[in-house]
């Protein structure tokens, strides 16, 4: 078959590398991954340290601007974001235009794309000042968009942002609160969600980020590029895996299947069934984010006093899989999505909103990567080559 390799075509040698398993599309100074050692660093800082000590907005600043902010820079960044959390009033009718059965990822990507309609003067990718404002607008408005997508799908009134609250608290209140009612956000829960956003904030040239860069390489604006990233993230092999994991766990639970027979189905590749939340293109040892999430899952369930049989099921699945030759030989380990769904479910999010939470976390990474791409003198429009394997020249039949 056609694998990785150099092939001679009419135009010379091209490298055929489906899925880009061995092709770098850019040089980047943002995120470092060593997949064999299970190392992930943003701008040099280990993910474990950031997850423990930083905040999502501080980490976002780090990713976007390259250095940790000073206290003054951080509060300026937070203030700028707070000032821009509102959506234009007319934008609200946008949400009511979708059926309530709409998948929120479709609503969110459309809304991000539609942001460009409100800021026609900010679309020049080389206007540094406008790019800065667009970056802040996206960070500020995505939580409002995500909350409105949820509220309109369940037919509840939309809540304006409350800018006395922190980034995550504000999002939780807009999602679960009601007008004229107090919504108390448990600070421990907000801190854990903030930490989950840090874990998702960047992951170098993954599918959605590569999409953002590729779209941007045509000099498309930041809103359009990020909207494309949201769509790429939706797929179940990428960010959509968090929804797929929970559906898999619910399926096993309700069928009464035991874990071993499910794992056997996966090994026999019956109906193409995969162990969702397992495996990663780059991590061939363990996913350092999964280790942090696993610890947090227990904490969230304890804090909320929730007992979820799906967590036990997930832990059993992990145990059985990690002791099984199929998974060991293929170096398949739990990835970041394996446990996040259990947390999101405990927090009260509907299953189809899980990938939106991933998008909220990944946003600063998309922005940082787009900005690096647009300012890199080595950037060219992304335009892969192909190896043509179709029919040779033939002629249209005469009537
Ligand atoms: N369950 C069962 N088998 C698997 C799994 C899995 N989750 N993942 C990979 N394999 C098997 C493949 O079938 C293949 O076996 P084979 O050699 O017998 O054909 C082998 O392991 C290698 O897998 P590839 O598909 O070649 O690995 P690739 O790097 O292309 O895919 C991916 C990585 C997409 C993450 C894959 O592991 C997968 O589909 N996992 C489930 C979905 C998932 O959890 N996605 C989230 C990824 S993390 C993220 O986006 C944040």
UniProtKB/TrEMBL annotation:
The keyword Transferase applies. It catalyses: oxaloacetate + acetyl-CoA + H2O = citrate + CoA + H(+). It comes from the Bacteria. Pathway: Carbohydrate metabolism; tricarboxylic acid cycle; isocitrate from oxaloacetate: step 1/2. Coiled coil: none annotated. Keywords: Transferase, Tricarboxylic acid cycle. NCBIfam families: cit_synth_I, PRK05614.1. PANTHER family: CITRATE SYNTHASE. Belongs to the citrate synthase family. This is Citrate synthase. It comes from Actinocorallia longicatena.
């Amino acid at each position: 078959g056609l694998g990785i390799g150099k092939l001679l075509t009419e135009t010379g040698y091209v490298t055929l590398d489906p899925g880009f398993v061995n092709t770098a599309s850019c040089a980047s100074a943002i995120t470092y991954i060593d997949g064999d050692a299970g190392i992930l660093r943003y701008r040099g800082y280990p993910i474990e340290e950031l997850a423990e000590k930083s905040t999502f907005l501080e980490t976002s600043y780090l990713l976007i601007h390259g250095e940790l902010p000073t206290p003054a820079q951080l509060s300026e960044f937070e203030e700028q974001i707070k000032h821009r959390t509102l959506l234009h009033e007319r934008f609200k009718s946008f949400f009511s235009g979708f059926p309530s059965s709409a998948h929120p990822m479709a609503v969110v990507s459309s809304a991000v794309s539609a942001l460009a309609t409100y800021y026609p003067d900010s679309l020049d990718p080389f206007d540094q000042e406008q790019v800065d404002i667009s970056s802040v607008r996206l960070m500020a408005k995505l939580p409002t968009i995500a909350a409105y997508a949820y509220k309109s799908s369940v037919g509840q009134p939309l809540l304006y942002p409350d800018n006395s609250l922190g980034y995550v608290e504000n999002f939780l209140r807009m999602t679960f609160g009601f007008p004229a009612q107090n919504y108390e956000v448990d600070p421990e829960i907000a801190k854990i969600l903030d930490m989950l956003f840090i874990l998702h904030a960047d992951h170098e040239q993954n599918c959605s980020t590569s999409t953002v860069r590729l779209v941007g390489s045509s000099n498309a604006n930041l809103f359009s590029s990020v909207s494309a990233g949201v769509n790429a993230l939706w797929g179940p092999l990428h960010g959509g895996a968090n929804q797929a994991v929970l559906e898999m766990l619910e399926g096993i639970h309700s069928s009464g299947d035991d874990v071993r027979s499910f794992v056997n189905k996966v090994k026999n590749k019956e109906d193409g069934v995969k162990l969702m939340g397992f495996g990663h293109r780059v991590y061939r040892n363990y996913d350092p984010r999964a280790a942090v999430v696993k610890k947090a899952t227990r904490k969230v369930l304890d804090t909320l006093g929730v007992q979820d049989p799906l967590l036990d099921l997930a832990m059993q699945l992990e145990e059985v899989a990690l002791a099984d030759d199929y998974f060991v030989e293929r170096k398949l380990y739990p990835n970041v999505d394996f446990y996040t769904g259990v947390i999101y479910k405990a927090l009260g999010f509907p299953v189809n909103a899980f990938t939106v939470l991933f998008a909220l976390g990944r946003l600063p990474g998309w922005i940082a990567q787009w900005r690096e791409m647009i300012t890199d003198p080595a950037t060219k429009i992304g335009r892969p080559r192909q190896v043509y394997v179709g029919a040779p020249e033939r002629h249209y039949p005469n009537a």
